[in-house]
Amino acid sequence: MKTPLQDSSVIKTRVKRRSDSDPHNSGPCGVCQKSNGGLISCDTCGCSYHLHCTKPVMDQAPTNMWFCVRCKHKFSDPSTASTWPGLQSIVHSYFTFEAERNAALQRARKRRDVLIDAEKKLNDQVKALVSTIMNKVTKKYKVHDSVQNATDSYQRLLRGVETLKHLSEFAVTN
């Protein structure tokens, strides 16, 4: 069974079969230099490419405008923007917008990462403080318990001394 890339009947409408009689024929694939099978054309320069020769490889033809790697590279150079007519100017504006949007997303991701790191540090500090407080509270209760035990022992000792005092008085009177 053929894959969708190998089966020419599955190729989308944007993929055009090129022939020598085709007036829009811009030649063979810009990568493998073969003219067989369905080729897609760059919407700016008209160069043709097989779906499997594009980077990244496409499994189906794009339904919107598509630009080859060379044109994308050209559009990324802002110094040539003012010399482009019509559609190329629009495409350049789109790529400029995309570059700015990607830069803003990158800045937002970095900010998010910084905030996540700060949150982790604060959580670690909170855990350390809670641990310190718990240790101090535990020590306080231990000290309180030992003071209570000492007080109880002292009270027993006083009662014992009182008892001895009464016994000695009783023995002297008898």
TrEMBL record:
<dbReference type="Pfam" id="PF00628">
    <property type="entry name" value="PHD"/>
</dbReference>
<dbReference type="InterPro" id="IPR019786">
    <property type="entry name" value="Zinc_finger_PHD-type_CS"/>
</dbReference>
<feature type="region of interest" description="Disordered">
    <location>
        <begin position="1"/>
        <end position="27"/>
    </location>
</feature>
<dbReference type="InterPro" id="IPR019787">
    <property type="entry name" value="Znf_PHD-finger"/>
</dbReference>
<protein>
    <recommendedName>
        <fullName>PHD-type domain-containing protein</fullName>
    </recommendedName>
</protein>
<dbReference type="InterPro" id="IPR001965">
    <property type="entry name" value="Znf_PHD"/>
</dbReference>
<keyword id="KW-0863">Zinc-finger</keyword>
<dbReference type="GO" id="GO:0008270">
    <property type="term" value="F:zinc ion binding"/>
</dbReference>
<keyword id="KW-0479">Metal-binding</keyword>
<dbReference type="InterPro" id="IPR011011">
    <property type="entry name" value="Znf_FYVE_PHD"/>
</dbReference>
<keyword id="KW-0862">Zinc</keyword>
<feature type="compositionally biased region" description="Polar residues">
    <location>
        <begin position="1"/>
        <end position="11"/>
    </location>
</feature>
<dbReference type="InterPro" id="IPR013083">
    <property type="entry name" value="Znf_RING/FYVE/PHD"/>
</dbReference>
<feature type="domain" description="PHD-type">
    <location>
        <begin position="26"/>
        <end position="74"/>
    </location>
</feature>
